[in-house]
């Protein structure tokens, strides 16, 4: 059995679903203020906040343990442990926010990831406490590194294997056929109701509003939910589509994220009507159509 087969078994451990549901309800209640939730997801950053913070937090802890391992100056490792502990609350809060909008297999692994990290943090807090009292705390620091390496492995599995935090619509710009592509007759589109069409192999969200048509990738950047199954809310420049899976909201005008958990914009297509036929072409980046 390969070492990572154990983690894949964890993905299917339904025994974790009960605790996950109870914790999820609690986390969602704590994050009922959408501004706080968006801030923790990293909507303001355009990038998941947890992954940005965790490198500094974990890096501080592991660096401290390495100094302790080679017998380096204790004041440096103490400073690094204190830095890691200082960054722990926002890192943990951002992690729980992302976890609360994850798929069940991701939540199972995430739960063990969080529990493992809680043990590691307790070790580092114990090491710091001992140092404040004039003791070494070296063993606790080394134990913290050993446990946190397990937590980090699970975190890596969540990011790289289960793609939590990845941009799930990023490939659309590469996969969509270049140039203007036919999307059927304008008259066949219902007014005000999003529908799914395809251009090449790429599904697209199409919304007709009178004579205007919005075309976006039909793949939510958060976890690839189908935006064409979502609700359209707001009016004018504030009109948004709400992802049916976890409620991310994207502005129809430009595909930008208004509310998370998504942190990346949904790829946008230019649209035009030629002799009653709708055509669209992918926009390579903000405001730049492809050739
Ligand atoms: S898939 Fe999660 S918000 Fe869209």
Automatic annotation (TrEMBL):
PROSITE patterns: RIESKE. InterPro entries: Cholesterol_7-desaturase, DUF2231_TM, Rieske_2Fe-2S, Rieske_2Fe-2S_sf. The keyword Metal-binding applies. Keywords: 2Fe-2S, Iron, Iron-sulfur, Metal-binding, Oxidoreductase. Pfam families: DUF2231, Rieske. Gene3D superfamilies: Rieske [2Fe-2S] iron-sulphur domain. It comes from the Bacteria. Residues 181-280 form the Rieske domain. This is Rieske 2Fe-2S domain-containing protein. It comes from Pseudonocardia xinjiangensis.
């Amino acid at each position: 059995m390969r070492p990572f087969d154990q983690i894949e078994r964890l993905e299917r451990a339904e025994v974790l679903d009960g605790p996950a549901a109870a914790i999820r309800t609690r986390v969602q209640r704590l994050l009922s203020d959408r501004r706080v939730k968006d801030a923790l997801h990293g909507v303001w950053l355009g990038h998941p906040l947890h992954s940005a913070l965790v490198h500094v937090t974990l890096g501080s802890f592991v660096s401290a343990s390495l100094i302790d391992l080679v017998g380096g100056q204790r004041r440096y490792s103490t400073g690094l442990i204190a830095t890691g502990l200082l960054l722990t609350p926002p890192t943990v809060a951002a992690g729980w926010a992302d976890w609360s909008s994850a798929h069940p297999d991701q939540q199972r692994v995430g739960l063990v990831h969080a529990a493992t990290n809680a043990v590691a943090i307790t070790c580092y807090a114990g090491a710091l406490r001992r140092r404040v009292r004039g003791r070494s705390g070296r063993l606790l620091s080394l134990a913290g590194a050993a446990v946190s390496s397990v937590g980090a492995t699970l975190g890596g599995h969540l990011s790289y294997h289960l793609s939590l935090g990845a941009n799930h619509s990023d490939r659309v710009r590469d996969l969509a056929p270049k140039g203007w592509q036919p999307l059927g007759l304008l008259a066949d589109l219902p007014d005000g109701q999003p529908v799914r069409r395809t251009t090449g192999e790429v599904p697209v969200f199409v919304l007709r509003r009178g004579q205007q048509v919005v075309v976006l990738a039909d793949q939510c950047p958060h976890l690839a939910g189908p935006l064409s199954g979502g609700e359209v809310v707001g009016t004018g420049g504030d009109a948004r589509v709400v992802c049916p899976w976890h409620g991310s909201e994207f502005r129809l005008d430009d595909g930008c994220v208004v509310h998370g958990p998504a942190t990346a914009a949904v790829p946008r297509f230019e649209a035009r009507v030629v002799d009653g036929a709708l055509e669209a072409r992918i926009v390579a980046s903000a405001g730049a159509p492809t050739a």
